[in-house]
Structure formats: structure tokens, C-alpha cells
Known about the structure:
Growth Hormone, Chain: A; mainly alpha; globular; 2 domains; 18 helices
Amino acid sequence: xxxxxxxxxxxxxxxxxxxxxxxxxxxxxxxxxxxxxxxxxxxxxxxxxxxxxxxxxxxxxxxxxxxxxxxxxxxxxxxxxxxxxxxxxxxxxxxxxxxxxxxxxxxxxxxxxxxxxxxxxxxxxxxxxxxxxxxxxxxxxxxxxxxxxxxxxxxxxxxxxxxxxxxxxxxxxxxxxxxxxxxxxxxxxxxxxxxxxxxxxxxxxxxxxxxxxxxxxxxxxxxxxxxxxxxxxxxxxxxxxxxxxxxxxxxxxxxxxxxxxxxxxxxxxxxxxxxxxxxxxxxxxxxxxxxxxxxxxxxxxxxxxxxxxxxxxxxxxxxxxxxxxxxxxxxxxxxxxxxxxxxxxxxxxxxxxxxxxxxxxxxxxxxxxxxxxxxxxxxxxxxxxxxxxxx
Length: 391
């Protein structure tokens, strides 16, 4: 196997391992909260703490890669995630548990942004879509592992986190022994603009002043807010304002997430047969149409169609926009830009669903779904601006 094939295989493993811890909290939380005697809603503190750690590392990933290289960044970050998960196993109080969530967030943010930055520069757009689909494989496997441990070992939630920690430690070893491959000159960028390579790296502040980067930060902020917000609020909207049964609403929310994962696999075949920007424009129009159908639903089936269309059309947007970053802003800026974009995505996923919930609580659930339609239309406008102003 060629070195590039080895790195591609390792990247897939990296994205799978990155997804493993994400959904495990949903399985273990009832047992965690019972042991530490905290309210059910305090899961939000754990998630927020992880988000803070993620933002800290992903925002700085450009500096870290320029300073230490991709290989060592992935090694240290994987060790951080592993240590954080082992920390869950040994936690004696909820405060310590939350602090280890910050550690996991820091490691995950660096891995996520680092792998995305490397993949955007060295791998095709097709593989970028499949890499993000691999993350979904990990996010699916994590709950299965946690559930299996709970059932097999007398509801020992600590052991479930320890198993995940061991897997991440093995991944750290894989990154350690392959670290020299990530820096190899054999992997010259395939898509980046090389005309300014001799000018040297730029600083974070210089990157933030780049107009296209600022628009892309806004784009990722809104996109993640739409993707996560629709998944969080669709069930409530359908059951509490449209009279749709719990079973049907739950099924179609699952269809939404399934269409997102399935779409990334399908678009992996399509992105190299059509111009990427044309495909993105059509998908953004599809998301806006799906949001429109869901918002002004005349029948339950209109809601269902809107959800399925949103999920499928949203599938390639995130990986394709990441993959096109170096092309749009230039290689010197791309590593910083991807770190900023990952940070913006996490911030949007944490804040926009909350903002839409406040709007829904004040003006009714219909206004909540209208807010996502507004976000989708603004996304389409931002994309047009980014395409026109790209280098």
C-alpha cells in the first residue's frame, strides 16, 4: 500500500475514533447523574465544558500545526482524549468529571480541526465526504460499546468510558508511529495555491482579517446551527404544535439524521462528477426548500418530506466547504481558516438552537421553525458572497 493510502486509512480510523465518545454521554448519563446526585439537566454543563475545550484548541490549531506539525498534534490530542476518558473512570466528584470533559474537548477539537485541515489540503473532496461519514460510524459505535458494557458488567458506566479510553490510546499509538508520514514531502498539496508558498505562514490575526475567512466563519456558524437545531427541535415542533404522534415524529427525526449520514456516502461519489460549487448551491437551495416545507407544513407528510430533504441536501455542505477552503483563501491561510471554521461550527451548534428555542418560547413553535428558514436563506446568500470573493 502506498504511503498516501496508509495515511488515508489512518485518517478514516481517526474520524471513527473521534466520533466514539460523542454519543456515549447519552447512554451513561442516567447512571452518572445517579452516582453524583445531580439534576438531569446538568448534562448540559458536561457538554458545555467539552465545547469550551473544543473551542480553545480548534481556534488555535493553525498556530499548533505551524509550531509542532500535524503528526505530533494528532498524537498529543489523542492522548488528551484518552486521559480525559480515563479521568471519567476515576472521577470522585461531578466537578472533576466536568473538568475532564474540558480535557476531552481540547483533544477532540485539535484532532477534528487538524484532520480536517490535512484532509482539505491532501485528500479529494470525495474522501472528505466519506471521512465525515466515518465520523458517523464512530458516533453510532460509541453508544453500542457503552450499552454493551452496561448490560454485560452490571451497569458499570465507568468501565464503558475506560473501554473508549483504551481505544483512543491505541489510536494515539497509531498516530505516534505514523507521525513522520504526516510531514512527508511526498504529500505535496494537490489543490492549494502554491504561488505564495515562499512567503511563510501567516498569523491568526492576519487570517482573521481575510474577508473571505470572515464570511466563512459566519457560514459555518449558521450551518451548524441549522443542522443541529433542526435535529433538536423537529420532534417538539411536530408533536406539540402539529399533532403528530410520538412514534411518527421520532421516526422522522431519525430519518433526518440517517439522510445526513447516507447523503455523505452518496455525495462522495457525486462530488467528482459535478462542479463542487454548483453542487453546493443546489444543496443549499434544497436545504432552504426543505426548511420551507417543514415550516409551512400543510400536512404531516409535508413535514416528513421537509425533514428528509433537509437531511439529504445538508450532507455534503460541511465536508465540501472544508475541502474547498484552501482553494478559496489560499494555502497560507487555510490551516488557520479551518480552525476558525470548526470553532464557529461548534459555537453555532451551541447557541443558535438555544436562540431559536427562546424565540419559540416567546412567539410560538411556528416562529421557531421560521428562524431556521431565515438561517437557511442567509446561508445561501453567504455562499454567493464567498464564491464571488474567493481567491
